[in-house]
Specification:
mainly alpha
Length: 121
Amino acid sequence: MSETPDDDRLEELRKQKREQLKQQQQQGGGDAAANAEAQQQAQQQAEEQKQAILRQYLSDGARRRLNSVKMSKPDLAERVEQQVVALGRSGRLQDQLDEEQMKELLRELKPDSKSFDISRR
């Protein structure tokens, strides 16, 4: 099985994180500041992993569209990112998503708009 450079990078990041956690456990946990810093590092590393997966499974056009949506509707963009990451990790994405597929995914995940009809009597 040949791994892509992104897979190698993800595995390297995971290995570094395991080593960091092991060192922290050996030190007895440390104080609250050290725990907050470790939590921040873990969040940063998780974000880096998510971005690596998105780079792997999104074409340039799809990435641009997602970034545009992120500016106006960050909640929707976050849901789309989570969906793409979940599909990628589960192996259900074989190729990169193109811009048209991204549009379809955005339509599916967009909440239904509510309209109000006001009638006067």
